[in-house]
Amino acid sequence: MSSIVVSGDTSGAVTLSAPAVAGTVTVTLPSASGTMAVLPTATGVLAESAGGTGTTTGYYGFKNRIINGAMVIDQRNAGNTVNNTTAGLYTLDRWLIYGSVSAKFRVAQSGMPAVNSAGFSYCIQIYSLANTTVSASDIYVLSQYIEGYNIADMLWGTASAKSFTVSFWVYSTLTGTFGGYVKGGSTYTYPFTYTVSSANTWQQVSVTIPGQTAGTWNTTNGIGFTVGFSFGTGSTYTAAANSWTGGDYYGATGQTQFVSTSAATMYITGVQLEKGSTATAFDYRDYGREMIMCQRYYTQFGLEQASSSLSQLGVAYQATTAVFPYILPVKMRSQPTVSASTTELVEWQTLNTYTPTTYTLPTAQQATQSPLIAINISPSSMTAGRVYTLRATSTAGYIAFISEL
Amino acid sequence: MIYKLMNFQGQLACIGKFENGVQTMAIPINPDNTDYQAYLAWLEEGNTPEPADEQGAA
User: Fold this and answer.
1) Is B40's Cβ below 8 Å from some Cβ in A?
2) pLDDT digits (tens, 9 = 90+) for A213-251
């Protein structure tokens, strides 16, 4: 083996070296002027700046297992604020908030409080509504459940479990060391911390987590994994940061309790969970694809209010019931729950209106992509076989199909 | 909040969830559905749903 050493113009040198090979190998240099591409490093990682993935995983498709990590989809609330409740409450698509005491913090889809160098346009705003004392058993969190199908290749619970990296951007009026967690079911939790040392400045946080070789992890349509941000967690539900802990935890020991400072405001966006030990550039998906991914868990149809609306046509199959078929944009995770705003039925021929009393999901039609809804009225006054329109009684009318985790 | 059994063509079709007398959900009878799981947990606490209406589709 021999090498060619080219001295640098002002300092240093570049060494061209050849490996041991059998026979004679020819490498043809480019015939045009330019700079040669950088080859992968010794670990096999080609940097993103050189056109690689930046990881040893070597793939691009579905790099980010978080859905709506850029906070662009908000079907339910369209940017309106939502206070936490003592039951889990979905806000921006796929993002769930929970608080042990109601109305201690609120969230909303937000524009960016300052330009973010990574190019995000939206974030989720978290706002503390009071100087809340966090008791030992209190929990105030924002989290996302990841469906088992979407993490099956991580091989968690096996000897081949893959490490992964969670990254996100944060901007906060309150400085401190805040807590978060990843977990599978209630069996294993990995609490982590991140420090905001400069208020009102975007910073990227990255946490690399070793694959968990123990436990049983859902790899189908149940909860495979949870990623959460804590805004207040009491001692009963915190554990030491940066290691897997058996049990059900929602924050890290010693973390700053965000909800204890009234009017504290935090913004989070660019949340990504990817295989490998490096936080790479955000997997920025197009809006339509991100919407479809959200609609697997929640699909909302707006209902028109106008009397001639064609928002949804159905047929009366008896005097008390009209049925309305729906074709959903994507197969939902499971047979969906249906939730509707206040509606009314309008007979297409006569424009007579009827007030629904209840709605039902006919058993045989409880499909994951083409459900049928039966709208019931009382007393019996519709005409079987005639066409009816389902319309809203307010401008915010909707029918939603829900199959959240 | 109450749950009510909901019939269609004389058979149990889904579970209705009502708040302040207004229906907020129609929940399919499916163990993968988290609203149905919440209903089952509510039953395990010793609660009983409202019976289905005897006539019609409701």
Assistant:
1) no
2) 999 899 999 999 999 999 999 999 999 999 999 999 999
A374/B57 touch (CB, cutoff 8 Å), yes or no: yes
Last residue of a domain, one of A233, A265, A293: A293
pLDDT digits (tens, 9 = 90+) for A12-46: 998 988 888 888 889 888 889 988 776 666 666 77
Of the residues B7, B19, B20, B34, the best mutation for testing chain A's interface (the one with the most A CB atoms within 10 Å of its CB) is B34
Same domain, A108 and A140: yes
**Distance in Å, alpha carbon of A143 to nearest chain B alpha carbon:** 16
> Which among A338, A373, A378 is the nearest to B25, CB-wise?
A338
Provide the whole-model pTM: 0.88
In a domain, A28, yes or no: no
DSSP A271-336: EEEEESSS--S-----HHHHHHHHHTTEEEEE---STT--S-EEEEEETTEEEEE---SS--SSSP
Residue type for position A343: T
Chain-centre distance for alpha carbon A108: 15
Q: What is the CATH number of the domain that holds A243?
A: 2.60.120.260
